Amino acid sequence: MDNKLFSPIHFGDVTLKNRIVMSPMCMYSCKPMDGTVQPFHIAHYESRAVGQVGLVMVEATAVQPQGRISYEDLGIWDDLHVEGLKEITNRVHANGAKSAIQLAHAGRKASLAEPIFAPSGLAFSKDYHVPNEMTTKEITETIKAFKDGATRAKQAGFDILEIHGAHGYLINQFLSPLTNKRQDEYGGPRENRYRFLSEVIDAVKSVWTGPIFVRLSANEYDPNGNTMDDFIYFAKQLKRQAIDLIDCSSGGVIPAPVTTYPLYQVPLAETLKKEADIATGAVGLITTGLQAEEIIQNNRADLVFVARALLRNPYWAKQAADELNYPLEAPTQYVRGWRNS
Ligand code: FNR
């Protein structure tokens, strides 16, 4: 069988050796408040590189302290964060994978004691604080925080940046009519709701020349939310801004129930790829090599993002290769053992 899951792919000067991405996953493992990398993070990300994932993506990392989901989140709002992140990229690279980091801001979904902000003063649910509506000055400062985060990501040696525009966090709050009720140029029609993300991308690109992915929630599970037509519009804008890939997730904008099942979000990646002619990543209950191979072979997406299956098994790539009868000759240190087993 011809294999595509283990075929390389290029994003600008960055080549991934296969199509398997470790999906970003918050580990809530920082010492409260400081956002710096701990020994756990290093072992956690390095072990997935040893496990032959093509791209190891570091979890949602806050560009501002008030943008943390929790006090245990990783941060990139201070130069002090660079050293620990650099240790992660060094270890990931030493084990043959490429590294990415997801730049994030929680907006109204920050579970912090101090005041939080969002496009509009609407709480996520009764368990969350009511955010302050962002001033234009706060919007400008937050865009600059994404830019400074990108500068630090570069200093730390990451190959790829992902901007977190999904799951109802700040950028998603601007994109969605459910959460953005602004009367200024950042609210109203979708052209305006896209403006914040557009300006974040422009700011990041002024300091970062490498590949950029954007994660979107391409289904809001609410009849008054963005429609697929809106997501196709956003995808075309992202393509116009030369974004390299859209990582297609869903939900989290409002507390709506989501029915999940194997490959449930793959049609989102497939639709945006075809309609906007842009590379996409598929994520969500992709647990077997056969599923992943089907997605890539049928051109439904360019990358598969694997999250929980990689928590269960850091060597998931090897398991996938075995399913596909693909002779994965790595890591070289293990190959003799595998041959003899
Ligand atoms: C996540 N997910 C997530 N997504 C994201 O964009 N940034 C993040 O930091 C996190 N954090 C996170 C933590 C944990 C513990 C889990 C399980 C998930 C979502 C994740 O990347 C993925 O989209 C979903 O888990 C669906 O993929 P799987 O798990 O079905 O492969």
UniProtKB/TrEMBL annotation:
UniProt name for this protein: NADPH dehydrogenase NamA
Keywords: Flavoprotein, FMN, NADP, Oxidoreductase
Domain NADH:flavin oxidoreductase/NADH oxidase N-terminal, first and last residues per copy: 4-325
One Gene Ontology molecular-function label: NADPH dehydrogenase activity
Entry's transmembrane regions: none
EC number: 1.6.99.1
Needed co-factor(s): FMN
Gene from which this protein is expressed: namA
